[in-house]
Amino acid sequence: MDITFEPVGGPVWVAWREGTLTRAKELEALAAWVRSQNPRDQVLAAAIQAHLDAAREAATTRRRVFRTGPLMERSAGNLAAAEAHILNTAPPDYVLGQMPSLLRDVQAHLPPTDPGRREFERIAHRVGNGLDNATGTDDDVAGWLRVIDQERGKIVTAVRAASSAALRERIRLRSFRNIVMGTAIVMTLLAVGVALLGLADRSLIPLCFAPEESGTAVVVCPTAQSDRFAPSQDGNTPPPSGVPVEDIDNVVSATAKSGDLLIVELVGLAAAAIAGAATIRRIRGSSERYGLPVALAALKLPTGAMTAFLGLLLMRGQFVPGLSALDTSAQILAWALVFGYAQQLFTRLVDQQGQTVLNSVRVPDKPAG
Known about the structure:
The protein is mainly α. The protein has helices at residues 15-37, 42-60, 69-89, 92-109, 115-126, 138-200, 248-255, 260-279, 292-316, 329-341, 344-360, and strands at residues 212-213, 216-217, 230-231, 245-246. The chain has two domains: 15-175, no CATH class; 179-360, no CATH class. The protein has eleven helices and four strands, in the order ααααααββββααααα. It has a two-stranded antiparallel sheet with strand order 1-2. Strands 3-4 form a two-stranded parallel sheet. The protein is elongated and about 115 Å long.
């Protein structure tokens, strides 16, 4: 009987889509072979084709380009369902040959206490595909095939439970990635809002300091500083000769520049970028397709901008004793750099949680604990 297949499809523009098309074609070939061995089961054959069509549709659709998570889950779920139907209809010798790899997947995604995993391991040992990978005689193989026929329902149920657990792990990973990205977007909007606020009204939140010495003061801002003057509020102390008497609020308003907040945030962002580059050496990466390490790195940049701004704001409010009067603009920018890098104190905890979430997505060579 001559059998022809349509092309695999693609190429497509994303790796997971290409993998879905390849796996769908592989399962389609297996389904055709199984159908040739068991032509009577037309119900599951139609269901297999429906699942494969759904997986291909998810891999080739151009809708919701920026929301591919549901499409990835749709493709993975339908491929797993098609594979389970193939195991339900395949000859016993095919299922027997797949037992080692199926055992590996079940042990990777189901905990040791799971009843389905325990039952699957018991069946695997009965058919000589346990941890010892035993070989047997022809009579042994014939007995194993009878066990496969008797326990096929339990085998398929355990395999389907393992694939569902793997999908739930990826859903948790995607959910955490979305939370990180949402937080990064909010922090970016806050940083942009602060910068626009400074451009609109330079005297509303001035990051300026006024160190005093011998009855005179100088207003120091991130990008400018005033001439020395005598604060008018100190009416009991006569000003030195030749030093004008000024209201300190007026001098601050005149010295502050509209781009001060933007400069401070840019310095903090640059420091956060350096901190992010330094953490790359500890990032192990992931084979998962959700880009969590990229999201964690993106969170650092707006966080550094905001910590630089908020840190200087706390210093201006004399929240830090002894650091309330910076002498030069260079000192202000230097502290902005320090506060921008200090975002690592906060995002480090997020990095650790992100690595924990990545580690929870188990792969066959890293069984569940």
